[in-house]
Amino acid sequence: MPHGLEHGTVLEAFRRHRHDVLNHLQIIRALIQMNRSERAMAAIDRLAEWLQSLGRVQQAVFSSAEPVVWVLAGCPHVVVADIVVEQAPEGDAVEQWVAFLTELEARLAAEGRSLRVKLRIGAKTLRVEWDAPELEMADWRDRYPHVDFARG
Question: Which one Pfam family would you cite for this protein (predicted)?
Answer without folding.
Answer: SPOB_a
